[in-house]
Amino acid sequence: MIVYTLAMVSAALEVAMNVKGAKVLVTSSGENIPLTDDSKSERWGRVAIALTSLAFALHFAGVIARGISAHRVPWGNMYEFSTTGSVAVTGMFLLLLRRHSLRWLTLVVTFSVLMTLGTAITLLYRPSAPLVPALKSTWLVIHVSAAVISGGVFLLANAVAGAYLYLERVESRGPRPAWALKIPSLEALDRLCYRLVAFVFPLWTFAVIAGAIWAESAWGRYWGWDPKETWAFITWVAYAAYLHARATAGWKGRRAAWLCLLAGSSFLFNYVYVNVWGSGKHTYSGL
Fold first, then answer.
1. Residue 47 and residue 2 in contact, taking contact as beta carbons nearer than 8 Å
2. CB atoms inside a 10 Å sphere around CB 146
3. Distance linking the first and last C-alpha atoms of the chain
4. Measured between alpha carbons, how far is 118 from 5 in angstroms, rounded to an integer?
5. pTM of the model
6. Which sign, positive or negative, has the C-alpha torsion 90, 94, 97, 99?
7. Helices marked H in the chain — which ranges?
8. 60: which DSSP letter?
């Protein structure tokens, strides 16, 4: 968490240097185009990514250590789900960073991971313990790993969709502020959000199917409309509707971004509320 905090501060300093170094170019038509001095902000941006990579390595080692301590995969309660889910978000961010211009998300990612880890350590922590009988299955690894990776990409898509909606509102009032100049255009954000969801949706579909197969093995039925199952299906329908609206109805921009946020909210509701306060056969929070 200390290294994540340093990464977050470095990312914030990158944003601050963008604002501090802002200049304005006046074109022949009288249009004001904000410019920035990239030297200091670029340096802090690189430091932020380096620290985020180091924090990810330490975070991942911590998850592995928890698994060694418990003599099983570390996915038995909400503390373990939170630490594993947050490391998946960071890992997917760093992986996608190699192909897409996502460094502007560093501040959002590090802040979100810090909040998740802080909650996990202070409110959700439980000592290492054996798995409950229903979780002792090979399907635990298959189902949960697919769901965790899907969740990491879905949350990144949510961040992109949120950035789109905010910047669209800002641009409707005038030019972007200096700190936002390095964020891609609205068209690029819209396209990136779609690509992220389209990329991971098949994996989420597999996670839901794997969960049903596991349920049949554990409880003798594939589907029982348990709250966890119901909200997983709602999430699947919401993201399917998003992809369908993009592909057939031509939804883009604001409407698509709101639909993506709605689908992501159902995923978070399932992860937080249903796990902690819900009832049914999927009550593995450990609280």
1. no
2. 21
3. 23
4. 11
5. 0.83
6. negative
7. 2-20, 38-70, 78-97, 106-119, 138-171, 186-219, 227-247, 253-269, 275-277
8. H
- Greatest distance between any 2 Cα atoms in the chain: 74
d(CA 14, CA 17) in angstroms, rounded, equals: 5
pLDDT in tens, 50-69: 999 999 999 999 999 999 99
- Predicted local distance difference test score (pLDDT) of residue 278: 66
SS3 32: strand
Packed helices 106-119 and 138-171: angle between N→C axes, nearest 10 degrees: 130
CA 120, 96, 198, 160 dihedral sign is positive
**Amino acid symbol at 18:** N
For residue 266, give both structure tokens.
């159902």
Asked if residues 59 and 2 have their Cβ atoms less than 8 Å apart, the reply is: no
Which two three-digit tokens encode residue 83? 């630490």
Please state the φ and ψ torsions of residue 218, each to the nearest 5 degrees.
-90, -40
3-state secondary structure of 184: coil
| Matching residue, tokens 């969801």 | 197
Which of 129, 45, 32, 38 minimizes the C-alpha distance to 79? Answer: 129
For the chain, the structural domain boundaries read 132-277
44: left (phi over 0), alpha (psi -120 to 50) or beta: alpha
